[in-house]
DNA sequence: GATGAATGAGAATTCATTCAT
DNA sequence: CATGAATGAATTCTCATTCAT
């Protein structure tokens, strides 16, 4: 933690990986791509990560941490409805990026599920934390079917992100976002 | 004097491609994989398809045709509600396959969007036809917000397929399926 | 020689080969290219020529025959000078084709010399006949150094064809043609 | 602590390429051939040259540089006649190599002209520099028709190289060489 | 620790040639 | 004889990973 070296080459790599994996996709991304984005020489990557998988692993961790931060922020809000709608707004906040590259979490999950290494577990873990948190909110609203609703909400977001990306149409995301907000409001007791 | 060459090697290849692309994903699938699945020597594939892209293209076409057939079958049903619920049931009919490999259409769309060739347009076309048909059903139910509802329904399915796949949990799909059926029923005038 | 079949599929193949080999070059030309140009199904080529080499061989033969015909025509002319200048004019008659594809004989010789099969001998034979004929003309002019002059003239043509092709400049060929004609005139006793 | 990696693997590759392309011809030469000649593993070639074309490009550059050096040496000579004759002698200095493989510049030009990539421009540039230099010498001799003479001389060399190669007869080159030297002498004012 | 270079295991693609009717 | 289809060997190219300093 001295600054004898630029702070956190390891972190820089993980961060760059999150970015590049989102934009290019897991399979299209080469180690060289990530190294370049992080401004780290290729050969050096292996000092920090023994394999490409481990780097991806780290990227997933980093991405998870970003989401945890987001959620931690939401905890400040007074009611579960507020929190859920704020989450929605966060998810939907950059429709053009989604239109271009899809949801970072979802596309990652989708791609990693095709692999036999353990990476799919890692991203599943991240998604589960999100899902659990959403469930908690619905439970706090007194809903017995909280899990079901959580799945429904999360699925709606993931699905519309996919459609938004496929059709390259940010509008889809915005419209569906509003629909879901109204739906949340309608659930209030 | 046997029935000679098994009919439609081209079709066999496209069919095998649909299958293998779904199971392995676009980027992980090698021509050799498809060739093997279709029981065709690799070199011979190029007699039918000039490039790997063209074979993928054909697979998309084939997949689209399968969906068109599915939909054509639904047209027999008397009410739009019936038709939509039947579509849902079709989509959700093999939760274990979805848990293992995701929705074939959705995963394809997700992966192809990372590519710069025109393949993303092809799969987008397939999805648009589905979406339009769903919209038509909602319109037939007298809903002014038919497009919005169509996007919502399609997104819900795509999203839950993604979650089902990520969590490897067929239950998710089944439960959400029922929830969506009830929702459709609730829309009846 | 009935016309139950279109006359001379074999000849058509050889002729097409001459053409295509000139335009595309030996190594870039595929059997399929030649077959297509001759309007003969690929599989059928092998009925007439057991290997690609044999087809090229036939093309060389055909090309040689065309040159022999050309030369036979020149024999009508009264003086060796006339004959040589007519040969020159024949060679230089389509400078734009030469600029695009080079001299058919020369490029063939150049490419075939890189191969270990006997094809180089075949094209060398064709060139030798030409060279001998030129020598004969110089001898008829009473020149003791007829061989040397023949080599010089033939070389000048081949060389300028190469430059014309390399620089894609038909003018080169025309100008050098005139220069060589003047040179021939200057040799008259 | 040895002199470590032999210096200039990139140069070694380009040099080997010049050699092998001359001997085997462009189309018959495989990357593996060049790699072997340079004693470099195939995969490693791509560290230095992104494509085969780029390696060929580099070979052309290297070849051009060799010619430039040759010419620079000739500049020392006092008269243009001396310089031209020295060039001739350089060109004709290894008739047996020419008999076996042709003129490296000429065969390269001939083969590359069949390709659609820009490689033909590259070799044409090399030849143009040579041609220009020859023209300059003739101009220095006070000849108004310097360009024409330059084309004639260059063509004679290229042509006789082609014949020498085709007939596998080094004598041709030697004899024509002398003839051209006498011709240059005869041009002196 | 840092780094440019090395290496080899695939992957797509092309094509002469052969085969089955 | 004719012909669409089949086959496999060769070739270019990519990249994760390793090595030598």
UniProtKB/TrEMBL annotation, chains A, B, C, D:
Location of the DNA-binding region in this protein: 30-49
| Keyword Transcription regulation assigned | yes
Does tRNA processing count among this protein's keywords? Answer: no
**What domain of life is recorded for the organism?**
Bacteria
Region forming the signal peptide: none
Name all HTH tetR-type domain ranges. 7-67
InterPro entries, A to Z? Homeodomain-like_sf, HTH_TetR, Tet_transcr_reg_TetR-rel_C_sf, YxaF_TetR_C
Q: What protein is this chain from? A: TetR/AcrR family transcriptional regulator
Record key words, sorted: DNA-binding, Transcription, Transcription regulation
* Entries under Pfam families matching the protein: TetR_C_13_2, TetR_N
């Amino acid at each position: 933690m001295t600054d004898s070296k630029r702070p956190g080459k390891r972190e820089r790599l993980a961060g760059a990986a999150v970015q590049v994996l989102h934009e290019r996709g897991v399979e299209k991304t080469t180690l060289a791509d990530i190294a370049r984005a992080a401004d780290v020489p290729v050969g050096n990557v292996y000092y920090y990560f023994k394999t490409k998988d481990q780097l991806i692993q780290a990227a997933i961790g980093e991405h998870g941490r970003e989401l945890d931060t987001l959620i931690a922020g939401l905890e400040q809000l007074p009611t579960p409805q507020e929190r859920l709608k704020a989450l929605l707004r966060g998810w939907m906040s950059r429709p053009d990026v989604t239109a271009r590259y899809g949801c970072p979490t979802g596309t990652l999950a989708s791609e990693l599920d095709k692999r036999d290494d353990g990476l799919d577990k890692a991203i599943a873990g991240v998604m589960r934390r999100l899902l659990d948190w959403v469930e908690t909110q619905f439970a706090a609203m007194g809903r017995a079917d909280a899990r079901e609703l959580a799945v429904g909400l999360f699925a709606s977001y993931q699905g519309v992100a996919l459609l938004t990306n496929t059709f390259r149409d940010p509008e889809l995301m915005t419209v569906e976002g509003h629909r879901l907000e109204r739906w949340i409001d309608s659930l209030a007791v």
